[in-house]
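hey m, so remember when u said the tokens were messed up on ur end? i reran from scratch. heres the input so u can diff it against urs
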Amino acid sequence: MSSKHNKQLSLEWKPDRASKVSLVKQIVGYVKHQVLKGDWLCGDILPPQRTLAKTFEVNRSTVVAALTELSLEGVIESTVGKGTVIANNSWSFLFSSPTPDWGNYIDQGFHKSNLPTIQAINEYEFIEDIIRLSTGEISSSLMPHEAFSTVLSKLAKNPKPYCYMEPLGLYDLRLALCNYLKYLGLDITPKEILIVSGSLQALQLISLSLLGNESKVFVESHSYAKSLNVFDFSGVEMHAVPVDKNGAIPWMINTSSIDGPSILYTIPTFHNPTGITMNLNRRQEVLDWCKNHNFPIIEDDAYGELYFDTPPPAPIKTLDDSGNVLYLGSVSKSIAPGFRIGWIVGPESIIERLGDIKMQTDYGASTLSQWFMTYFINDGHYENHLTVLRQTLKERCQLMLRILEDHFSDIASWNTPAGGFYIWLKFKQPISTKKLFDRALGEKVLINPGYIYGFNENYYVRLSYCYESADTMEKGLRALSVIAHQLMEEL
């Protein structure tokens, strides 16, 4: 049996020097134990010998001896182009116990694994001394902690029944959102809103509830959705939509090749990752084209409230008079992702269907978070916080632009955002952004390379000014500039 796995293993274990068991035997036993437990799977890749020696704090000769013994026992094998991997015969020859081959089960699962780069990003974002230059969330210092304390105190004095909510979510929160979203031009009722645990769950519910194996999802040629497997796992195909400075150009889709249900997913305001904002004319053109071709629209408006000076055009949903648009909103970007609160606005029949599927998956978003957000919105804290956050994000964006001008102007170009989180940087020469990513990690700088968002190889990097402090941001960008210049010299 061949395995699809090629995960690079990360080790933190060290042998016990006080033990009577030799260092070699301890290492051999540790590797066997990890395989036996199912933590390491056939095809998983061990770090190089030098890295192992450094991690285990032993001589390289000790590592070589341990690996030799493991190889003779059939636990590991050397593979050209990969290095040392867990052997395919480990399960059948090494252990007499009937341990299931979990790798085989994983291979049969519908949901694909993340790209190795995305897995690394998810891991390194939680390492304390890493400089996060691409993170898509505001730092704790930008969160309204005083308002949090006020609302939590109010909840404590007025305890609520923290039981399961109705299928569409807490009515009080849905009503609060109806009133709040009027300022965007959305005239909706609580029956047209489903409370979800963020925009990602909204996409998952749509995928599970409304799309089938022959469905196609069209997204901008660089898109947040391309970095996810939210559609792929259900057999849905994703296709790129050409873009220009005003966003998606759906009339360039070759509709003759479409033989099943299709839907357009777009982030029209402060797009992730490109920062593009559709003007009002393009929004109307996109809606008209989709209506004429029977394409529903998923409009993700996670960043729409985060403008610097001038509010962006109203959501596409405000132009929709035929129930063609499913509108997604969230507080993950504007307040804190940990609250896990978002919403879907759509026709009552669709919202009821999505609510039914949500009840089958998690029985509702956090009740505490829903009550919290109800007070946070109704008591005016949300609007007050946004006023402060917009100004802070503007200042941080201006700082990042100045640093880029000082250190990247000879090797790259970039957009100037009017809001949101992101600067979409493009290198002038075709450097390997995979090498850039790896070398930057070596300097404890974490970036999101553009290829995780694209359908083809590209020379972009998504940068974010919403997380790191001014000093740390400059330190990280200086280090990234040095690496990028070195890669240019290697071309």
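this time it looks ok to me. The radius of gyration is 25 Å. if urs says something different then somethings off w ur setup not the seq
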